[in-house]
Amino acid sequence: GAVVSQHPSRVICKSGTSVKIECRSLDFQATTMFWYRQFPKQSLMLMATSNEGSKATYEQGVEKDKFLINHASLTLSTLTVTSAHPEDSSFYICSARDALGVAEAFFGQGTRLTVV
Amino acid sequence: GQQVMQIPQYQHVQEGEDFTTYCNSSTTLSNIQWYKQRPGGHPVFLIQLVKSGEVKKQKRLTFQFGEAKKNSSLHITATQTTDVGTYFCAATSDYKLSFGAGTTVTVRA
Predict the structure, then answer these.
(1) Which ranges constitute the DSSP H helices of chain B?
(2) Is B24 an interface residue toward A (CB < 8 Å)?
(3) Is the pLDDT of residue B99 over 80?
(4) Integer CA distances (angstroms), B2 to A56, A62, B21, B29, in order
(5) Distance from CA of A34 to the nearest CA of B (A)
(6) Pairwise CB contact (< 8 Å): A109 & B42
């Protein structure tokens, strides 16, 4: 199946700093990518929909100024956690669906963010 | 997005036994997808069901979509240690996926 690459897989940062997470579709074009957050032993919570060439659509309760999303090309979306705090520590996962409308979502490997 | 409820949250199974996890919605779903997430890993697509009453099989896994398209189930027969993980159902709405809470499966040998 298609491959979505997410980087970094783990990151530890200090409070107040910003962290950028990259999500790339390696063998298909993704006009839309999705960013999820997952707490331990919980489900995936959709944070935002990243649209190539336009602004991201954020889910209710997700701060757009806190979680900056950029989808500059059909194969790359980035999530920047700005002014990170310990409560932002979590597992962040991106996913993408083929631009041609294939049903299944392909997930990146996830990024374990720890803010100290 | 679509709200899907999934039960049970945890399933501890004796190796070789069968079990079922259920997914329910209060509204009619256009389709339902199932994913598996291994411990420490990311979700991997298993299957999509679209038609009312649809049943699909993948080796020891049987997926079913209810007649009213409001519920779905995943039945695993002869559980093996490789079945360990969390199984999520997910519903599509406006091209977005909403995930159920997941059923975390552990297997005792």
Answers:
(1) none
(2) no
(3) yes
(4) 20, 18, 19, 8
(5) 8
(6) yes
Interface membership of B66 toward A (CB under 8 Å): no
φ, ψ of residue B82 to 5 degrees: the values are -70, -10
Mutation test of the interface with chain A: which of B45, B48, B92, choosing the one with the most A Cβ atoms within 10 A? B45
Minimal Cα–Cα distance from A54 to chain B, Å? 16
Output A98 or A29, whichever has higher pLDDT: A29
pLDDT higher than 70, residue B52: yes
> Taking CB atoms and an 8 Å limit, are B95 and A105 in contact across chains?
no
Bridge partners, residue B10, by sequence: B104
> Which single residue is written with the structure tokens 């005792």?
B108
Report the distance separating Cα A31 and Cα A71, nearest Å: 9
Report in angstroms the alpha-carbon separations of B30 from A96, B40, B69: 19, 30, 7
Contact (CB<8Å) A1/B45 = yes
Bridge-based pairing state of the strands B55-58 and B32-37: unpaired
**Position B69: which residue type?**
K
> d(Cα B6, Cα B90) in Å, to the nearest integer?
10
Instruction: Report whether B6 contacts A44 (CB < 8 A).
Output: no
At position B102, the amino acid (one-letter code) is: G
Calculate Rg over the CA atoms of chain B: 13
